[in-house]
Specification:
Layout (H helix, E strand, L loop, with lengths): L12 H39 L5 H17 L1 H15 L1 H21 L3 H4 L2 H30 L6 H29 L2 H6 L4 H18 L5 H7 L9 H5 L2 H21 L3 H7 L5 H29 L2 H23 L4 H19 L2 H6 L7 H17 L2 H10 L5 H19 L10 H12 L9
Helix pairs in contact: 1-2, 1-4, 1-6, 1-7, 1-9, 2-6, 2-18, 2-19, 3-4, 3-6, 3-18, 4-6, 4-9, 6-7, 6-18, 7-14, 12-16, 12-18, 12-20, 13-14, 14-16, 15-16, 15-20
């Protein structure tokens, strides 16, 4: 096969435009997906008493957190089904399907009847919607991680994949921004009775726009190159089993990161309100500001990983989370002002950035094209179902039992497991994701020896 089409310098203008469109399209779609996913957690403090008996506020939050966690149980199913689809039929088709499923789920939550209207039937509808969202997100993570990584230039994959958490965080910021706006325009009674339904309606509308956008995306070169070969095992569990060591690495390296991420994002507002005694409006503003800075940090950390490698950032995160969680969370529990809570939250999220900015690239770089989406999706989704999705519920369980600080040690322990993994695993920065990248790398290495001419 001729390699004359492979270039070692910057891609031509049309190639750069194509990569920018892929970055924007993949990121905006991911933003809406995660907006719909996180808006549930952001508005839970207002609709918790709509679906369950009005007795204990903590119990109501535990019920809604339980449904939030149950949604994670469908993520492995979504990771398997949609990861297989992405490996067999293309990243683009999987991305289009995931956003359609999320739109339907958002509409179900928007129209779900309350406990006063239909008893526990409303909670059942809420549960079904979360299961559908879980399945959608299970496939979305892998499809977007794979797409953004494959669509980026080899020496910019850390930067390109960092936009997954930029878009995830911006989705959450959009939800929090809507919440802050509604907090200042509606009364608490209005928010609790009907206002909480508005963001879910908006999420369904956003998804329709993204569906159109994703239909215009181009498939990645890596998939088109590999998809030309007839391979019945593509995207199968049998093919994944051949890479079971890499799958185990994905689970272990995800463990600490997902627990820390959900602790300092979705659970943070509830912790500031329930444990620090902060007003809901102030706690929401703290989360919004901290997440805005967090989103800005992701590309810089991604670019840094392209220069120094992935492992230094991962190890820095794990060390910081292992030794820093207890003092940071303890201090947050007694934070009495916006600025003190913001400073501590930013410290925690700067640490977490070492994981979030590059984890998509690291996972994608571990697998060959034929099983890359499934390899990223399934073990990641299992780790999230067991640890990320249950983080908030575990925190509230410890709190309800009078041992809230035990949760801080739990987060540190999860980070320690990942730290051992990061120390032992190889750095993936220089992995070739396609034959074209392998040929370009071989030519680049041969050039200094005078063998750079095309064969």
């Amino acid at each position: 096969m001729s390699s004359s089409a492979v270039t070692l310098g910057p891609p031509p203008g049309d190639e750069r435009r194509r990569r920018r469109l892929a970055l924007v399209g993949g990121s905006l779609g991911n933003l809406v997906e995660w907006y719909d996913w996180f808006v549930y957690a952001s508005f839970a403090i207002y609709f918790a008493d709509s679906f369950f008996p009005n007795d204990n506020p903590t119990t109501q939050l535990m019920n809604t957190a339980g449904i939030f966690a149950v949604g994670f149980l469908m993520r492995p199913v979504g990771g398997w089904v949609l990861g297989r689809a992405a490996d067999r039929h293309g990243r683009k088709s999987a991305l289009t399907l995931t956003v359609t499923m999320m739109s339907v789920a958002a509409l179900l939550i928007a129209v779900a009847p309350t406990y006063g209207q239909a008893g526990y039937f409303g909670a059942v509808v809420l549960l079904l919607a979360r299961l559908l969202q879980g399945m959608s997100i299970g496939g979305e993570y892998a499809a977007s991680a794979t797409y953004l990584t494959e669509a980026s230039a080899r020496n910019r994959r850390g930067l390109g994949s960092s936009f997954q958490y930029v878009s995830m965080t911006c989705g959450q910021l959009l939800g929090l921004g809507i919440l802050i706006t509604m907090q200042h325009t509606l009364t608490k009674q209005q928010l609790g009775s009907w206002g909480w339904r508005v963001p879910f309606v908006l999420g369904a509308v956003f998804a329709v726009v993204v569906f159109w956008l994703r239909r215009r995306l181009q498939e990645t070169d890596a998939f088109k190159e590999d998809g030309a070969h007839d391979d019945s095992a593509r995207g199968s569990l049998r093919a994944l089993w051949e890479h079971r060591r890499q799958a185990g690495l994905v689970m272990a390296l995800t463990l600490g990161g997902t627990v820390a991420y959900y602790t300092y994002t979705t659970y943070l507002t509830k912790y500031l309100v329930g444990s620090a005694g902060m007003a809901k409006n102030t706690a929401t503003l703290v989360s919004f500001t901290a997440l805005a800075v967090f989103a800005v940090l992701q590309p810089f950390a991604g670019m840094l990983s392209d220069r120094i490698g992935r492992r230094p950032l991962l190890i820095t995160f794990a060390v910081g989370c292992t030794v820093g969680t207890y003092p940071i969370m303890t201090a947050l529990g007694s934070a009495s002002s916006y600025w003190s809570a913001l400073g501590l939250s930013l410290l925690a999220l700067v640490i977490v950035t070492g994981y979030t900015s590059i984890n998509a690239a690291v996972k994608a770089e571990l697998f060959p094209t034929r099983v890359r989406a499934l390899g990223v999706a399934l073990p990641y989704a299992v780790a999230n179902a067991l640890f990320g999705g249950t983080a908030e519920y575990v925190a509230l369980w410890f709190k309800n039992g009078g041992h809230e600080k035990a949760f801080f040690w739990y987060v540190s322990g999860c980070a320690l497991v990942s730290l051992v993994t990061y120390v032992l695993m190889p750095d993936t920065r220089d992995a070739a994701l396609s034959r074209a990248e392998e040929e370009a790398g071989a030519r680049s290495e041969a050039a200094p020896a005078g063998a750079g001419a095309a064969r």
